[in-house]
Design brief:
Keywords: Dioxygenase, Iron, Metal-binding, Oxidoreductase, Vitamin C
Number of helices: 7
Number of domains: 1
Helix content: 10-25%
Structural class: alpha+beta
CATH class: Mainly Beta
Pathway: Lipid metabolism; fatty acid metabolism
Largest sheet: 8 strands, antiparallel
Pfam families: PhyH
Number of strands: 17
EC number: 1.14.11.18
Distance between the termini: 43 Å
InterPro entries: PhyH, Phytyl_CoA_dOase-like
Strand content: 15-25%
Order of helices and strands: EHHEHEEHHEEEEEEEEEEEEHHE
CATH architecture: Sandwich
Shape: globular
Length: 365
């Protein structure tokens, strides 16, 4: 007889307060946890025990024996996440934390983004991506719109995001204490010009990463303003992190696709999906196998978010040749050849160059 624990509400079509979260205002009910939460904590202790099992005390001649539960796979018990949050992430592959990054920090990131767009500062290694269909940019009218900054690890102001203590304390719950910042982005989703190029196809982030283990990688994605379905919020397929890495390639879209916007070739379109609507400063953490994307920006303004992919410093590189990831390896190497004139650079070396230690020790990455 298996013990089933299902504390999750039924899915709605969008997320507001669905994800259990801990506000930074410190409203943890220390010592006053509900009886339901106490029961969950007891279950967590059992789940985290290597040889724990749950048995019912015999009340008659019949003895009920429960099969030994497995350890929680996708998070560590660091004392930061509540039992409800750990179980939510275990089941769904993502977790929304409200009001995690301050308005002051976000405004500083926005100003630095504007300085980069105006070419007032040059950042080594930074990739500035422009929308294939948007002719008018936000700050420089005679240039195509900047849709994304990638690899800003050499910009001290933007990279501050990756080392924010309030971000890292949650990241550690998924990577462990040795933390590498591996991939940085500031996404500036432009108003759609009618060709739907502001969409981001459904994909799994692991497609881009030649390092493992998968479960010790996590993304932190912070809204720099209110994010809704109208301006193209994230959409996720809950539970798909429990699957495997699928084949990715450019989708066959009539209006064109932005560079390196690969999409999953085959997934169940009828899988329940959730629209993650967020306020400025809210941060969502998600697993690299979670299938997700974003819709069109149907407003007149640009929608900004800043993100970093983290991995355990104990992760290791793999050879992706002959796998479904070989196409992205070849594309990245082509970009490196054009940008830096380097044709002998290995895929893993590119990631080792990008990676920055933000906590603990760099043992293998």
């Amino acid at each position: 007889m298996m013990l089933l624990v299902r504390p999750f509400p039924q899915y709605n079509q969008r997320i507001g307060n669905l994800c259990p979260s801990v506000p930074e205002s410190g409203r943890l009910l220390a010592g006053k946890m509900s009886r339901a939460a106490e029961r969950l904590r007891t279950v967590i202790h059992h789940l985290d025990g290597a040889t724990a099992s749950i048995r019912a005390s015999p009340t008659s001649a019949q003895t009920l024996t429960y099969s030994p539960p497995q350890k929680l796979r996708y998070s560590f018990d660091t004392g930061i996440l509540t039992p409800e949050q750990r179980l939510f992430y275990e089941e769904n592959g993502f977790l929304l934390i409200k009001n995690l990054v301050s308005e002051t920090d976000i405004d500083r990131f926005r100003k630095e983004f504007e300085r980069i767009c105006r070419q007032e500062v040059k950042v080594p290694g930074l990739i500035v991506m422009r929308d294939v269909a948007i002719a008018k940019s936000e700050f420089v009218p005679d240039q195509r719109a900047v849709s994304k900054l990638q690899d800003f690890q050499e910009d001290p102001e933007l990279f501050r995001y990756c080392a924010l203590p309030q971000i890292l304390k949650y990241v550690e719950c998924f990577t462990g204490p040795n933390i590498m910042a591996m991939h940085t982005m500031l996404i500036n989703k432009p108003p759609d010009a009618g060709k739907k190029t502001s969409r981001h196809p459904m994909h799994q982030d692991l497609h881009y990463f030649p390092f493992r283990p998968t479960d010790h990688i996590v993304c932190a994605w912070t809204a720099m303003e209110r994010v809704t379905r109208q301006n193209g919020c994230l959409v996720v397929l809950p539970g798909t992190h429990k699957g495997t890495l699928k084949e990715h390639d450019y989708p066959d879209w009539e209006g064109g696709v932005n560079k390196m916007y690969h999409g999953v070739r085959d997934y169940n379109p009828n899988h329940p999906r959730l629209y993650v609507e967020m306020e400025k400063g809210d941060t969502v953490f998600f697993h690299p196998l979670l299938i997700h994307g974003s819709g069109m920006n149907q407003t007149q303004g640009f929608r900004k978010a800043i993100s970093c992919h983290y991995a355990s410093g104990d992760c290791y590189y793999i050879d992706v040749r002959g796998t479904t990831q070989e196409n992205i390896e070849n594309e990245v190497k082509d970009i490196a050849l054009k940008k830096y004139g380097m044709n002998e650079l290995a895929f893993k070396d590119m990631w080792a160059f990008r990676g920055r230690l933000v906590q603990g020790e760099r043992t293998s990455l």
